[in-house]
Design brief:
Order of helices and strands: HHHHHHHHH
Structural class: mainly alpha
Number of strands: 0
Number of helices: 9
Mean pLDDT: 77
Radius of gyration: 19 Å
Strand content: under 5%
Largest sheet: none
Helix content: over 70%
Distance between the termini: 66 Å
Low-confidence stretches: 5-14
Shape: globular
Length: about 140
């Protein structure tokens, strides 16, 4: 390996600095992480896996300890992403409870409150509406 290639590798190794994991919205965090991978040309699953593991706090890493200690042989990043979202995301029932009881306009603009409420409803608004009516009924 030439000196120029070695410098390029060492520079690219430190060029990705992922933000701290956001347990409040892991899907959004992964969207930002994937944008960084895309702009840096990182497409290898194991490399993505290693970057994500390195950016996790001890509390969050404990949630996926099994995957960190024994990474899947195929698709380790995809599996880690799926499990982190599943294990750390707030349950849909809890989101609905927060939506029904805890959201107030306060100092927010109405449009910001609406975005917060939509986030609590989740990605699939039609399905969430059914859950919302069930929660209201119960």
């Amino acid at each position: 390996m030439s000196d120029a290639e070695e410098k390029t590798l060492s520079v690219s190794a430190v060029s990705v600095k992922l933000p701290p994991f956001w347990p409040a919205d892991p899907s959004l965090w992964f969207a930002q992480v994937e944008a960084q991978f895309q702009t840096r040309g990182i497409s290898v699953e194991r490399t993505k896996f290693d970057y994500v593991v390195a950016s996790l706090s001890p509390e969050i890493a404990t949630e996926v300890r099994d995957l960190i200690l024994s990474p899947p042989t195929s698709g380790p990043y995809t599996e880690l992403r799926t499990e982190l979202i599943q294990r750390t995301a707030v349950s849909q029932r809890r989101q609905l409870q927060q939506l029904l009881s805890g959201e107030e306009l306060g100092d927010q603009t109405p449009s910001r409150l609406l975005r917060q409420m939509e986030r609590l409803l989740g990605d699939n608004t039609e399905q969430a509406t059914g859950h919302l009516f069930r929660e209201l009924f119960l």
